Amino acid sequence: MKLFMVSSEAYPFSKTGGLGDIAGSLPLALNSIKIDSSLVVPLYKDNYKFADKKNEYAKLKIKHDKNDIEVEIIKIKHPENSNITVYFIKQDKFFKRNGLYSENGTDYNDNASRFILFSKAVVQLIIYLYKKEKFKLDIIHLNDWQNSLIALYIKEIYNEEEALKNLKVVFTIHNLAYQGNFETDIYNLLNISWKFFVHSRLEFYGKVSFIKAGIILSDLITTVSPSYAKEIQSEGFGLNNLLAENSYKLFGVLNGVNDNSWNPKTDKYIKHHYSINSKINSVEECLKKKKLIRDSLYKEFNLKNKNFPLITMISRFDPQKGLDLIYSSFFELSTYDGNFIFLFSKNNYFKNFEEEFIKRANRTKNIKVVFDFDEALAHRLTAGSDMYLMPSKFEPCGLNQIYSMKYGSLPIVHSVGGLKDTVINYKDSKSLNKATGFVFNNYSVNDFVAAMDFAFNLYNNKKVWNKLIYNAMNKDYSLLKTAMEYKKLYIKLLK
């Protein structure tokens, strides 16, 4: 089985969030279960160390509106597994920039053009590989709106090409809130007939919708948790009816964690490594190491009361993430015997809210807010924390709550999407053998604060708390499980 994983970002080459994590690591897991996987991503500015002349593979001419644009294909072996080929789409004017999709919190105004070009180049690469090497692809796995147009080009524009015949298209929705809807002035860039600008293809409330191509024309749609697959059929940002009509090919596959990147035993970003064994008392050794990491964070952030628990949150600064609940609960948070550190990436769309958020945090002694995408700090905060907040309004899967459990930090989450599928709520002694965190049902300040109160009241009951940590660190949310689920779907599709 030959497969292309296509993404606008993929760790370790590029990443802004969970998409980069899963798109970058899933090919590694698929390769381990004998699926011949390759990765296709744009060549961004930070990856030019891979753009050596010896790695140039091909030059392709891409029709883009009335222009012929030259795109280079850079071909390398994956640094973590030489069996996996990585194809970079190199076009400096489009991708050699300081950011992936935005700069200083503001989106690039030509993102439609950039990812139309990327999508065309991927299709032309597949055709080129077939003509040059007789390389016949079985499955192409697309991710989010940035490359969903590939489904249209494969199924309806170049469907007579031998390289694309019988090629199965899988499309994964990582977050339906981001759809790639653009004004019609970008339509000429597609180089396709206006007959496709209809409700059954690309038209969406008078705009050109990239994501509709992926939903309608893929052979299989997946999303990143079973609960989210159900939720988007009723609350789908205007696409719920379309998704319900396509429910026969819609599946929820829970994202997994790459042990090479997120593992308290080996994490390159933390000084004190730790793990549990089969005995509950091994949690005590973990907590000693976690406290050393926590102490260093308290020193770094000038937080007092070293024996207080640390509560963290690492996220985009986006209302989706439940920021209004936290903002409205600052007074309650300031009264807890605990210290809070929030790590957010900037978002200029919510600049005013960011300023108000910082002002309110600055009135407290125990809450620190950092606006900076810092991978190393994210790992240290996860390892040093005792509790992790994820009160999202909606959450397709979420990876941070899985990371936190793996690192022995108990998550406090809203019962939605992947959070509902991964965190098992502790209610009472009957739930002690399975529980891994705390879950509140209604999206309200009262329910959020009640969950916080419950967790803080339990924190000093070390017998119960340590058992919850033991349960959380033992949960298997491995990437291999995710890969096995995808393999079943791929086989079903090919049959």
List the helices and strands and how they pair.
Elements (H helix, E strand, L loop, with lengths): L1 E5 L11 H15 L3 E7 L13 E9 L2 E12 L2 E10 L1 H4 L6 E2 L2 E2 L3 H23 L5 E5 L5 H9 L10 E6 L7 E2 L20 E2 L2 E3 H8 L2 E4 L2 H6 L8 H6 L4 E3 L29 H19 L9 E7 L6 H6 L1 H6 L3 E7 L5 H12 L4 E5 L3 H10 L2 E4 L9 H7 L3 E5 L2 H6 L15 E3 L4 H15 L2 H13 L4 H16 L1
Parallel strand pairs: 1-2, 1-8, 2-5, 8-9, 9-13, 13-14, 15-16, 15-18, 16-17, 18-19, 19-20
Antiparallel strand pairs: 3-4, 4-5, 6-7, 10-12, 11-12
Helix pairs in contact: 1-17, 3-4, 4-5, 8-12
Question: What would you note in describing this structure?
Answer:
With 495 residues, this protein is of the alpha/beta class. It is built from 17 helices and 20 strands. The protein has helices at residues 18-32, 92-95, 111-133, 149-157, 210-217, 226-231, 240-245, 282-300, 323-328, 330-335, 351-362, 375-384, 400-406, 417-422, 445-459, 462-474, 479-494; strands at 2-6, 36-42, 56-64, 67-78, 81-90, 102-103, 106-107, 139-143, 168-173, 181-182, 203-204, 207-209, 220-223, 250-252, 310-316, 339-345, 367-371, 387-390, 410-414, 438-440. The strands form four sheets. A nine-stranded mixed beta sheet has the order 3-4-5-2-1-8-9-13-14, with helices on both faces. A six-stranded parallel beta sheet has the order 17-16-15-18-19-20, with helices on both faces. Helix 3 (111-133) packs across helix 4 (149-157) and helix 4 crosses helix 5 (210-217). The longest helix is centred in the N-terminal third of the chain and has 23 residues, at 111-133. The radius of gyration is 23 Å and the shape is globular. 46% of the residues are buried. The model has no long low-confidence stretch (mean pLDDT 95).
